[in-house]
Amino acid sequence: MNDGERHERPERRTPEPSGVDLARQALAAAREQARARGNAVGGKKRQQHPGLRSGARADGRDPMPLMAALDRLRTERGWEMPIAVAGVMERWAEIVGPEIAAHCEPERYEERELLVRCDSSAWAAQLKLLAPQLVARLNAELGQGTVRLIKVQGPGGRPKRYGPLRAPGSTGPGDTYG
After folding, report:
1. Tens digit of pLDDT for each residue in 123-141?
2. pTM score, two decimals?
3. Which of 72, 83, 85, 89 holds its CA 20 to 30 A away from the CA of 54?
4. 118 closest CA partner among 156, 89, 85, 159
């Protein structure tokens, strides 16, 4: 060997890590990150959070009858009044009586006001006189303060037609020949 030549030692090569080694390294890194965040894992027993595991006692995740689930949903969403008003719309004849129901029908309910349309102006006038009594009866059925006012409308004429075959200012087919 010459002085200029270096004596080369065979280098030790470390074997490439296998899949198991890579998994161990990833797990160690994840544990270290969890410790840094404050979520220690490993030797300590994990704290059980109430409600995350099923047990012998009843909780909010247990099955319940359909009507109980619907009642719970209705109260959580605040749908009591619209559902009650819908029930009144269906039971109108039962609440006001068959004679009034034959000539007057509820159309809509908005902001504690019930709009009722009658089939004649005579029935509209009669219903306006009976409105305070009907409000009291409806509030007895629905709960106090549900209906504040009943607005009564008489019969409506035919709906106005708008379109390309109408002359401006025309009131309908009677104009053409009159």
Report:
1. 999 999 999 999 898 888 7
2. 0.45
3. 72
4. 156
